[in-house]
Amino acid sequence: MLQPADLTQNAGYPTQKPEAIMERIIEATSGPGSLVADFFCGSGTTLAVAEKLGRRWIGCDLGRWAVHVTRKRLMGIEDCKPFEVLNLGKYERQYWQGVTFGEKKERHLTEQALYEYLAFILKLYGAQPVAGLIHLHGKKGRAMIHIGAVDAPVTIAEIDASVEECVQLKQPELYVLGWEWEMGLYDLMVEAAKMKGVKLVLLQIPREVMEQQAAAKGDARFFELAYLEADVQKPAVRPGLSVRKGDPAVQVALKDFVIPNTELIPEEVRSKIKKWSDYIDYWAVDWDFQNDTFMQGWVAFRTRKERKLPLVSDPHAYDKPGKYRILVKVIDIFGNDTSQALDVEVPLP
After folding, report:
1. Is the pTM of this model over 0.85?
2. Do residue 35 and residue 142 come from a single domain?
3. Fewer Cβ neighbours under 10 Å: the N or C end of the chain?
4. What is the CA radius of gyration of the chain?
């Protein structure tokens, strides 16, 4: 029988549900194999209890940090069954765009709807629209502005075309605002633009622009993309290593991670940051990324008890030689994720 203390754990959240309460509710209302759903899952208490009790589950939350905390909590459960983290992403944005600016016509936005979308984003960012240009949509101070589409990642070709237009117009700065980004784009494009005399800044369009109240209050803030540097290396042969000498194996090492606009981070947080890796809460590696779903092949994350974070992955041995794309995903202490793609060719052993 549960004791009162088991039911009154309090972490200061008004909607908090201790595991003991959820265990009683789930056991009373479902059986093993039943499906349990929590559409405002918070830190994942319901899902964690459902997993421990052998139930299937679905959890949803709007907060990035809530989803991240829930994922870590589930991964900390011994013998937790495999699960997926899914994001509405472009589908949610497409719906918002259709409702706000008008439906598509033959799979494309009408010209008026596209103009209204661009004008809306420019206004939120504090920029002015410009007319008569192909790839540049606005201007803020010295910087020209390009805005990425709602339903597609900003590509290297898209940025390159915008940089070229800046060069032709003798404009020294280009700010690109995007929802999603082509993998491995950051360092490649910034350096390429610099060589052409254009300062390139990549800015994330925040999800808050889709929330009417936040947009009206001006709470939508555009932040620069974080910079991630990772490297693929050959694992050193050492006693106890599971990879034999000569195996087609690799491991990934994190080399650097930079969060722009650190002046906006509260001082109480900044004072605890001693090195670049302190900004990282979690990172994972997909050893054979197929340009679709991220498959977590190796992962490391901080917990309340273990604050240290390894910056080099365990070795991974490929079954056969060939060309592979490795995707490294980092989630920072604010719940934002940054990815870098690394191409590797595994030779014959």
Report:
1. no
2. no
3. N
4. 23
Domain residue limits at 110: 90-224
Residue 340 is assigned to a structural domain of this protein: yes
Residue 66 amino acid letter: A
Q: Are residues 209 and 233 in the same domain?
A: no
For helices 64-75 and 45-52, what crossing angle results, to 10°? 20
Tell me the two tokens of residue 205: 């369009």
Query: For residues 98 and 169, what is the distance between their CA atoms, to the nearest angstrom?
Result: 33
Rounded Cα–Cα distance for residues 246 and 347 (Å): 10
DSSP, collapsed to helix, strand or coil, labels residue 124 as helix
| Same domain (yes/no): 180, 271 | no
**What's the mean pLDDT in 327-336?**
87
Separation in Å, CA 338 to CA 6, 186, 227, 240, 263: 39, 10, 8, 32, 20
Question: Is the pLDDT confidence value at 325 over 70?
Answer: yes
The answer to whether residues 149 and 191 belong to one domain is: yes
CA atoms of 53 and 56, how far apart (whole Å)? 9
C-alpha torsion sign, points 254, 282, 156, 189: negative
The answer to whether residues 220 and 243 belong to one domain is: no
Give the CA count within 13 Å in the CB-facing half-sphere of 167: 13
What CATH number is associated with residue 150?
3.40.1350
Mean pLDDT of the chain: 84
* Domain-embedded: residue 83: no
348/249 Cα distance (integer angstroms): 10
